[in-house]
Amino acid sequence: MNEKTDKKTIGVVPEQAGTLQRLMEAGHFEQELDAAKFAMAHAIERGVGRGTSEGAGTKWHFGSFDSDGGLKAVIEALYPEETNPYRQIEYLINEGLRLFDKGNGQAPDVVGAILAAAKA
Amino acid sequence: MLHLKSLHLSNFGAFKGDQEVVFPEGAGVTAFYGENMRGKTTLLNAIRFALFGRITGRGRRDVSLEAMVNLEAKVEGVRTFEVRLVMTYAGAEYRLTRTARPSAVMTDDYEARYYLERGGHILPPDQARLELERILPSQIARFFLFDGELLQEYEDLLNTESDTGRQISTAIERILGLPVLTGARESAKAALDRAEKDLALAAQGDQKTRELGNQLATLTAEREVLSADLDRHDLALSEQRSRKADIEQDMRRRERMSTLMDKRDRLKAESVAAATRREALIADIQQSMSPAWVSLLRPRLLASAAALREQEATLQAAVTRAQVLKSLAVGHDPDCPTCLQAVNAAAQDKIRRQVELDGDAEHDQQPALAATRRRLDALSAQLGRANPEVLVLKWVTLEGLENERYARQAEIDEIEKSLSGDAEDELRSLRSDYDAVVREIVVLEEGVRVARDELARKSVFRDKLQRNLDKQASGQLDLIRARRDVAGRLYELFDAAVDEYRDQLRHRVEADASKFFLSMTTEPDYAGLQINDSYGLTIVHKDGELIPVRSAGAEHVVALSLVAALQNNAPLRGPIFIDSPFGRLDRGHRERIVAALPGMADQVALLVYEDEMPPDRARAALKTDLLAEWKLERRSARHTEIVKL
């Protein structure tokens, strides 16, 4: 994994595109990248480890996705071993979307995730 | 006096086949016991149908004739029903038979026909109609056939502005026989008008009085036109008031629906306002959701930040240690920074050796320290953007709004389910009709006022002309003048008599109603009833104070007292049929009312369910005044038999 170079673009695997779409349709987020970051945080919060996503398309350039580098800093803080933070971010986004997908076509429970985190 | 001898029913409502009730001959009470849905109201309707050809349902709405064919008989092919009433009135026996059957023209419509026999002979239709109208005019039926619902309407008599109250007042004066006197007054007025006309005509024929006669004739013609206008306006006003009262009653019956419609409209307006608030909140939440991911990670980020701070402190301590040792080793600082004692040569040698062993520790640790600080700054910046409490509050607020929205919509849906499109249109149409009638009444009232003022003005002028005529008239006009004077005095007499009689009637009704009220109420502190100009009755406390607001139960007792007093003072006496009159009355009141029934009319029929008035209690309260008891027994849901007990 470490041998790979970090990614310049971040994307969503086709299997999770629908979940991202439903997140947007639910009207919780203004932009897709906000929804993607939320999915990433959900994955982290659920204890997803390091990994890579295969087959993810190109949706965002890392510069626009993480304009101030804050996201990278977070990944470095939470995954100190990770040398390819944007690859990890992409992986976490897709894992977060997968975890949100209950397979019933319903919008992900964003509010439930926020309330659960607030109680934690 | 009207007395019912028997009632014969044939497939009328729940009463399948041919059934008959024979009423006792003497004065007293006949009780009919029947549980709900057994046909007590139908029995009342049978008499109403026989006498007036009408059947009323709940809310006093007319019921279609077709709906009254017994349903079991209908399945067996029966399409008609019939009610026969045998009664005595003014010494003659009448046999009234009314039959309803499908119309010959329209098979889905029903028509009712009747014939009336007197002394065994069938009367011609016109005579039958007149006889029936004489025996029991439909306008006063409310005082003979009534239920709790009808009793409630008497409260309107207290409201002098109410058109329903005005209608009931008119009916009351009718049963009390006032129309005989008002009719006489109108006849006297017509005679006076004719006499004045004759006088004007006669004056025109005399050279001396021709000019006055001409003026009087013109004035009389103008007054005739004005009077005709006034009569027309009065009639139209009376019709519109009656229509307004009907609409008011209809609207009152649909009050629940009206309330529901108002509630639905209010909920819809609230929905629109809530939708605007919701949209604004959603837009706000969308903005707040941009950094929401940090809120989700806040606990982890806080833990990471704490670890980084620890790491920063360790690294900083190592760098500081290296810097101090280096400074002491080269002798830049002669004193120990910790104990502030001078460092001796031996100690300095030891420090130098240690520095050599450590190498360039300060230089080695600086990059790690800088990297730790960068990460810490980045994390702190992210954490600074997160405000999970505010975010949660916004979501909870939105959830609350959503819940309200669903609840509101569910309520709207529920209301709309109970509001059929037709019923809603009818109510809208009623409201629109009501507004139109009220506008029309205002216009007519103004027309009446103007016509009256004009008539009064012309009357003053007429009096002046007549005085002049009296001075100038020759003896030829004496007879005509005398006739006019007699007609005038006669009119004044009847006019005063109407007021006097009305006043006396009110006092008699008040006294009798008070007597009945005191015999029926269980409240010892009440002294009686006070009547107003519209025959509305108010309870009087024994300390003289009026009781301004009364309960539904008290309303029933007051209404029954009024009906009893009217019966006692009416020239036209007859049987009274009372259907479930007890409403929310307690046992004490029920028993006292039952005991008072024989005093209300010679023939009283009481229709009750047994829990309302158990037979043993009715027997105890009425004793020998209870002449007969009947029971409405269930045979099936669509078949009731009237059984004599």
Quick overview:
The complex is a heterodimer of chains A (120) and B (645). Chain A has helices at residues 14-25, 32-45, 62-65, 70-78, 85-100, 110-119, and strands spanning 9-10, 60-61. Chain A has 120 residues and is mainly α.
Question: How does this structure look, described?
Answer:
The complex is a heterodimer of chains A (120) and B (645). Chain A has one domain (13-119). In chain A, helix 2 (32-45) crosses helix 5 and helix 4 packs across helix 5 (85-100). Chain A has a two-stranded antiparallel ribbon with strand order 1-2. Chain A is 54% helix and 3% strand. With 120 residues, chain A is mainly α. In chain A, 45% of the residues are buried. The mean pLDDT of chain A is 88. Chain A is built from 6 helices and 2 strands; from the N terminus they run βααβαααα. Chain A is globular, with a radius of gyration of 14 Å. The longest helix of chain A is centred in the last third of the chain and has 16 residues, at 85-100. Chain B has 645 residues and is an alpha/beta fold. Helices cover 61% and strands 15% of the residues of chain B. Chain B has 17 helices and 14 strands. Chain B has helices at residues 40-52, 71-75, 125-135, 148-152, 163-175, 178-204, 210-253, 255-288, 292-329, 345-358, 361-385, 388-418, 421-472, 478-520, 552-569, 587-600, 615-622, and strands spanning 3-12, 15-22, 28-33, 81-89, 92-102, 110-118, 121-122, 145-147, 526-531, 537-541, 576-579, 603-608, 626-636, 639-644. Chain B has a 6-stranded antiparallel sheet. In chain B, strands 8-11-12-3-13-14 form a 6-stranded mixed sheet, with helices on both faces. The radius of gyration of chain B is 46 Å and the shape is elongated. The interface between A and B is medium-sized, with 30 and 31 residues.
